[in-house]
Amino acid sequence: MSRRPVLAVALAAGALLLTCLPSAAAQRPDGDARLTIGTLSTRPDVVTGGDVLVRVGVPRGLDPDDVRVTRDGTDVTSAFTATASGTLTGLVTDLREGRNRLVATVPARPGARAALQVRDHPSTGPVISGPHERPFVCGTESFKLVDGSTPGPPLDEDCSIATRVDHAYRSTDGTVKPLADPASRPADLATTTTTTGARVPFLIRIETGTLNRGVYQISMLADPAAPEPTRTRPAPGWNGRLMYTFGGGCRGGWYTQGADTGGVLDTEMLGRGYAVASSSLNVFGNNCNDLLASETTMMVKEHFVERYGVPRFTIGWGCSGGSYQSYQTADNYPGLLDGIIVGCSFPDVTSATNTTLLDSRLLDHYFTATAPDEFSAEQQTAVAGFRERASIPNLSDGAKRLDPDAEFPAALPADQRYDARTNPDGARGTVFDHTVNVYGTDRRTGAALRPLDNVGVQYGLDALNAGAIDKKRFIDLNARVGGIDRDAEFTAGRTAADVKATEAAYGTGRVLWGGAGLASTPVIDHRSYTDDLPGGDIHMAVHGFSTRARLIAANGHADNQVMLAEDNRHGFSLRSPALRYSLTEMDAWLTSLTSDAARPEWTGRDVVAHKPAGLTDACWTKDAEPEKIEQRLGYDNPGECGALYPAFPTPRLVAGAPLADDVIACARKAVDPADYAVTFTGDELRRLRAAFPGGVCDWSSRGQGQRPPTDTWQSAGNGGGSR
């Protein structure tokens, strides 16, 4: 992707200034086009840990042995080796925190010179996410290693541990077992053939350490009897590709390091030869903040590249909260993930999810407390839109992430938790307070500002027009449904979004746009269908179609996204034939895209052109031996797939919102009798207008403050970036 201009935009008073970081492209400040220098492991302004992998481009006619490289005047040429392509690659170490200047020269050719400024940050972070959250509970004594032990107590207040390597193997019975003696070869040791054709013993090397206050792990096939794998001497079992796994959740995902990762021991991934990486801060159940998750991904991948080499490509993999991270990291921080395979997906936390949770909480309260017995179960379902009425209380409970004293990690001491009466200065447990570096705070209360709104929303509008509810119920519902305040207490008035937080949500990419990095990212979106679960479920099919609608709105098409659906027997696991197929096809897609070494970057048009010919939308039947049906999947539920796995609306869509579901606070207009399929009496119109004193949502207009993000690679500052 082409480099974008460096921009600085003030998002809001009370919110942080987010800035755009320079790309990793080689910089030639002296105008000499013959010698180049650039970073390989990360972008030059977000280097961490005191080292960075650097490449010097040497033009024809110059001998690489004649090139000299300095770091702030100190010769570091010995760190570089020549590659087959004639470039020099080396790990520059001993960077000082802050700015460092790297210069490549050819002493015998005074005109041959290139310089690059890099900025180093501590390996504990922060870099782009803003100031560290406090309090912060370490999880190192709960984090389980492959042998069941833990890394032990943290070494410092940033929850650091000493980096360690453990070994395991896949048994012929299919399980992963610890390898207590690295020199041993158990009788039940399996073998595997990787995607590159290497047949190797199924021996697994697992590196565990800490970066950005999260526990990371990197696994790959490697024989402990052989020399340690390095960037210049990779393990024979590594296929040169990286899987980055993202874990789900969100509820209680704050103030903790966590004690798990997205998973690095999947034997299907490892058996194909992939290296697998993840961090505890890439599990949304530990960290429900996509900006911090992207920062962590950036730092772990940087370490991987410096230690093991540049992967041919990186595939993001995650379900639910893992899909948030995959989609938003790919769009907001292009280059970290080259392709993504997501499941049980949502576009983001901020818009579709929080909106649906708010609406469910309010409807559940109205149906059970405000107007009990006024709406039948069928009428309640018609207003909510969900397939199962049980999803209303299910998602109402999920709205605890909007409540500052409802859900915390178990390890956070009670005396540090917010309570409006007994501990008003305690840590507030909401998605907004966890992302306060973006949204800013309310100067009066100290609580985070909220991009959360239901002003003007006509709950049950489609149900009214379809005759599922009558005018009396429609008017009463909208007159008394109310809202919630910053402490999630019910209010008679509607919930109004904070303007500054709303602008920040859009401007920084907390609301998924789809027109930045995602425009040129291969996407496979897998839906393990759960709309029909009797107890209700949040992972509804409609959310995948909302993402597709955003891609179409931003790019004019969604041809880089393939959607697959099946029943829920396997969930989001590689036991699923659809997901095994997805991984095979994504590998083929990215292998084709990266086949031209002379063209390392690609456009959205390239992505579509290189998509495997047989890779299309499809679903699998519910039979004991499922059959694949190739057809378009859509919110309009077309064909046999639509009958098998139908999508249903959310309360906001029933109220008339667009399928993209990306409006936080709607533009409003006066109540117009012509907009309804029913005829209101004069008295009914007066009561309806009284319910909406500021008007009703005008879904034909953009939402308040709605706009594409300012740019990619934004930083919240206060720890790094080009603020």
Features:
723 residues; five-stranded mixed sheet; 19% strand; disordered C terminus
- Percent helix: 10-25%
- The separation of the N and C termini measures 23 Å
- What structural category do the secondary elements indicate? alpha+beta
How does the overall form come out from the CA principal axes? Answer: globular
Structural write-up:
The protein has 723 residues and is α+β, with helices and mostly antiparallel strands. 22% of the residues lie in helices and 19% in strands. The protein has 16 helices and 30 strands. The strands form 7 sheets. A 12-stranded mixed β-sheet has the order 13-12-16-17-19-18-20-21-24-25-26-27, sandwiched between helices. The chain has a 5-stranded mixed β-sheet with strand order 4-11-10-6-7, with no helix packed on it. Strands 3-5-9-8 form a 4-stranded antiparallel β-sheet, covered by helices on one side. Strand 6 (68-71) and strand 7 (74-75) form a beta hairpin. The longest helix has 22 residues, at 349-370. The chain starts with 7 loop residues before the first strand and ends in an 8-residue tail after the last strand.
